[in-house]
Specification:
The chain is α/β, with parallel strands linked by helices. The protein is built from 13 helices and twelve strands. The chain folds into three domains: about 70 residues, Winged helix-like DNA-binding domain superfamily/Winged helix DNA-binding domain (Arc Repressor Mutant, subunit A), CATH 1.10.10; about 110 residues, D-Maltodextrin-Binding Protein, domain 2, CATH 3.40.190; about 100 residues, D-Maltodextrin-Binding Protein, domain 2 (3-Layer(aba) Sandwich), CATH 3.40.190. The chain starts with 10 loop residues before the first helix and ends with a helix.
């Protein structure tokens, strides 16, 4: 008689069952507190519990996950690889919970929902106006949250579920589930203080001469900084050490207003919008390359949401009209 072999256990299924049946949000909150403070004493003080109670709760969480989540080091309690993985998803879960809370609050206040939009500072005003007008003119209205940052920061916000969509420069990194669509091409131009424009525009375009000026550049390891560095290298010139590293338009304007040799690179249409104040001006050189395209970002799991879909449609349509007009 042949005996039937016992059914093989699936560790992943067992872990999923344990998480669904035993895991509580307060245990995830505990793990985040341990990661913040790195000592159980400080966690106990924050959560107003005894240290033995915190130790017991940590052991229970580790038993649920079936892995040791923290180890003691000279720097205090440090997450193990398993702990890092759990903390990564805990941050996402709490971000989703916060987003759900805000949406429900918006619905109770008579709004039709809530959308979190990320923007880089160099999004043209016409594109920004079209996006916000579309969202705020809906009936009933949408509650809108905007956040400004570099493209890298906006992508990080999307991946962490802190944003629903974003408009920024094209992204050349690796982000799971990220969708991006190039929608608008911008021409770059060299920008200086208005009072210095005549002096700094004498002679032909000379990158070696320009590199000696006081540069305002994006922060290191951002897509735009890599682009600008490549331009200097392609011209056979060592990229300059910047006087100021920023993507903030107001900071740029302040420095350009006060520093006679300050220079930066911006999109020509953005500069045209800002030139009316009279503090800065574009040098009369045509650069032989384009900026990374303005792109619309969202996550694959969010692309089907009606508000994300409708906003994308308006942004793309507006960008096409702007491109035809510029061409």
């Amino acid at each position: 008689m042949v005996m039937a072999s016992p059914t093989a256990r699936d560790p992943a299924a067992d872990l999923q069952h344990a998480l669904l049946s035993r895991l509580k949000l307060r245990q995830l909150s505990l793990l985040q507190a341990i990661d913040r403070h790195r000592t159980l004493g400080r966690v106990a003080a924050e959560m107003r519990l005894s240290q033995p109670a915190i130790t017991k709760a940590l052991r229970e969480a580790e038993d649920i996950f079936g892995s040791r989540l923290f180890e003691r080091t000279s720097r205090g309690l440090v997450p193990t690889p398993a702990g890092e993985a759990v903390l990564h998803y805990a941050r996402r879960w709490f971000a989703e919970l916060e987003a759900t809370t805000r949406v429900l609050t918006s619905l109770e206040a008579g709004r039709s929902g809530r959308l979190r939009l990320g923007l880089t500072q160099q999004v043209p005003q016409q594109l920004l106006s079209a996006a916000l007008q579309h969202l705020l003119d809906r009936t009933p209205r949408v509650a809108v949250m905007t956040r400004e940052g570099t493209t890298d920061e906006l992508v990080a916000g999307l991946v962490a579920r802190e944003l629903d969509c974003a408009i920024g420069r094209s992204y050349d990194g690796d982000a799971t589930g990220l969708l991006q669509e190039a929608i608008y091409q911008q021409e770059p131009c060299l920008v200086v203080a208005a009072k210095s424009a005549r002096r700094l525009s004498r002679g032909p375009l000379d990158w070696a001469r320009l590199a000696a000026l006081d540069w305002i550049l994006p922060p290191p390891n951002t897509p735009m900084r890599r682009t600008y560095n490549a331009i200097f290298v392609g011209a056979g010139v060592q990229p300059p050490v910047p006087m100021l590293e920023t993507t903030a338009i107001r900071s740029m304007e302040t420095v350009l207003r006060t520093e006679p040799n300050a220079i930066t690179i911006l999109a020509r249409d953005v500069v045209a919008e800002m030139e009316q104040a009279g503090h800065w001006a574009a040098l009369p050189y045509r650069l032989s390359w384009n900026l990374p395209p303005v792109s619309f970002f969202t996550l694959k799991e969010l692309e089907g949401q009606p508000m994300v879909q409708s906003l994308r449609g308006v942004v793309v349509q507006t960008a096409r009209k702007m491109q035809r007009k510029a061409g």
